[in-house]
Amino acid sequence: MPVRGAAVFALKPQFLGNFGAHGPDSNLSIIEHVRKDQPRPNETDGEGRFALSGLELANLQLFVDASGFEPRCVPDLTPGPQELRVVVMRSAPLQLTVLDRQAHTPIATASVEAERNTGLFLDEAPRLAVAPGDGPARFTVERIGTFRTDVVVTAPGYASAAVAVPGAKPPEIVELTIELE
Questions:
Q1: With contact defined as beta carbons under 8 Å apart, do 16 and 63 qualify?
Q2: How far is CA 121 from each of CA 19, 108, 178, rounded to the nearest angstrom?
Q3: Quick one: how far is CA 59 from the chain centroid?
Q4: Which residue in 63, 127, 137, 151 is a FRET match for 95, CA 20 to 30 A apart?
């Protein structure tokens, strides 16, 4: 199934030396870092196609990033016209509910922040998108990763909670309830 709106980056191998071996976790760190310098990457069209031009160097690394999918790296991209098929895997989401510990009711004023802990020694862990879920005090955290995700939940009038969520492999959906006091 084609993925529309995926970001596509081509990077020089020298840039990648600080990130170690490639895998979904390190790819996410690389993409987050690159987005700071290239806020408007190439994107795939409605049929999942993209075009890159002006690539003169050999051994480029191609990175594909799409919401709801694990980031993907294609090593050793050669210059010149070519047809390339990149398959991306769906990512594992976290479905999170925030409740008042005593009343067991949803806390509508709760907010959630999440970082994907990659197990790599980077200056900053990749921050994850947190979207409203299917009800009050429900949240969806995309791309929780295979190592660990650090979640912080806050709400006015409650003590905050920090939780380390173990990694999950797609297509697993992780469900978690956090109770605040």
A1: no
A2: 9, 36, 28
A3: 25
A4: 63
